[in-house]
Amino acid sequence: MDLGPAYYTVLVRHDSDQSPWSTAALSSHGWVLGTETGALLLCGAGSLSRWTPQHSQHRRLTVTPGWYSVTIRGHQQAEGPDDAAYEFALTSASTRPVFHADLDQPVRINDDGR
Fold first, then answer.
1. How far apart are CA 25 and CA 74, in angstroms?
2. Residue 13 to residue 30: CA distance in whole angstroms
3. Are the CB atoms for 40 and 61 separated by under 8 Å?
4. What residues pair up with 9 in beta bridges, in sequence order?
5. How far apart are CA 72 and CA 26, in angstroms?
6. Any idea where the domains of the chain sit in the sequence?
7. What residues are paired with 93 via a beta bridge?
8. How far apart are CA 35 and CA 81, in angstroms?
9. What is the DSSP letter of 19?
10. CA angle 11, 77, 79 (to 5 degrees)
11. Which of 5, 17, 45, 74 is disulfide-compatible with 109, CB 3.0–4.6 A?
12. H/E element holding 9?
């Protein structure tokens, strides 16, 4: 996704729920998420190289098990001291959606790499 190191506000929501931000600086459609249990774990990409499942900075959340089409929206206005905000808007699907996200589209919303 080509995000630089920074602090981000992250929101995972159903697409029918209203976003707390009015206008996105970027929007990337066509991502796919599947979960058999509904348990999700949010962490930085750096955590994957030294995986510690119970790390205190990982955030856990639960969604209904199944398939989702995902839109990633980036916002320059973040909460508190965070540098930016990203939301993952989930749309339920009865079968696995077709992946059609543009992998060449940058998801950085600031010129300094955030």
1. 6
2. 16
3. yes
4. 85
5. 8
6. 8-93
7. 67
8. 32
9. P
10. 60
11. 74
12. strand 8-14
Mean pLDDT, residues 84-112 = 85
Instruction: Express each pLDDT in 39-81 by its tens digit.
Output: 999 887 778 888 888 888 888 999 999 999 999 998 886 666 6
Task: Indicate the pTM of the whole model.
Answer: 0.82
Is pLDDT at 113 greater than 50 in this prediction? no
Residues 73 and 85: their CA atoms lie apart, in Å, by: 8
Please say if the pLDDT value at position 111 is more than 60.
no
Contact 76, 84 (CB under 8 A): yes
Q: Which two tokens stand for residue 64?
A: 């209904």
Element (H, E) at 62: strand 59-62
In 3-state terms, what secondary structure has residue 97? coil
